[in-house]
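Pipeline run #58 for the internal structure catalog. This entry was flagged by the ingest filter as a single-chain record with no existing model, so it goes straight to prediction. Upstream metadata was stripped on purpose; only the residue string is passed forward. Reviewer on rotation: M.T. Logging verbosity set to normal.
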Amino acid sequence: MGSTRVVAVAVWCAIAMLAGFSSLSHAQLSPTFYAATCPNLFNVVFGVVFNASITDPRIGASLLRLHFHDCFVQGCDGSILLNNTATIESEQDARPNINSIRGLDVVNNIKTAVENSCPNTVSCADILAIAAQVGTVLGGGPAWAVPLGRRDSLTANRTLANENLPAPFFTLDQLKDSFAVQGLNTLDLVTLSGGHTFGRAGCSTFINRLYNFNNTGNPDPSLDLTYLAILRQICPQNATQNNLTNLDLTTPNQFDNKYYSNLQQLKGLLQSDQELFSTPAADTIPIVNMFSSSPNTFFASFVASIIKMGNIGVLTGNQGEIRRQCNFVNAESPGLATMASKDSMQKLLAQSK
């Protein structure tokens, strides 16, 4: 049996194990959790996200990232959605999130639409999980039955957000450690990194690779020279603006497996991306090669890993609450009509310039 086929068999076995884990863990979660209490839930979420995607092709990637950044900080509990208050330090102001997370207004719009259909029923944590699935599907990615039944947290944890969320300059060992803390393995790491198949990133997240990598005075040697020249045009040295560029230069708004092909060509945008392929003798390299050659294998693995991630630290039963608004706990909820989210304020400021 050839080495490629051996890797394929190993990956498929791991995917099967992940799928079994997902169905067995947190038995309180079920795709049919709202079947009786909010039967139109998925249609409501889909409609809001679809409408947002018409004017913002990036929204699917932004919603997927929100779900990821939520789950890595005290579990998938909607804590990332909470605004600053007298008692809460918002995770939105943590280093990995500030001035980079998007889609908060869309989540609020979904919540408003869901509340109109099914009041006091659906958690914001579940809305995030569904929105991530819808955003992936609208980008051309796989669909999956989203396990539901999460409850919303009463707290946020900015300190933990700074500690737990993997940085774009992480080495492979640091990435593995970051995922292991969440109960996620190497296959999950390579698979979920494939979420960078769409979306964008600012120069500040990768400029260290362009001019002075690891204080060498030279660019990252694992960066294709033609791609380096393109990125230097987008991000001049000592530039004051944090310009954006596509995470996937090939199919920037499509959820596919081209992310992995880019890594093979040394065209991963972030150091944390390219580490998966360019770290010598890494056990991630065969997985990258497999996903690059087989979109179906990548899609199957993504479904298993995203469901597994969605089970991290969930609140169920009588834990937490069902928030009336996603950006405030119920005890501090001022009403959607009177409190703008950070997304709204940023748009107003941009329009005033």
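catalog note: The chain has one domain: 21-199+247-352.
catalog note: Strands lie at 200-202, 244-246.
status: ready for reviewer M.T.
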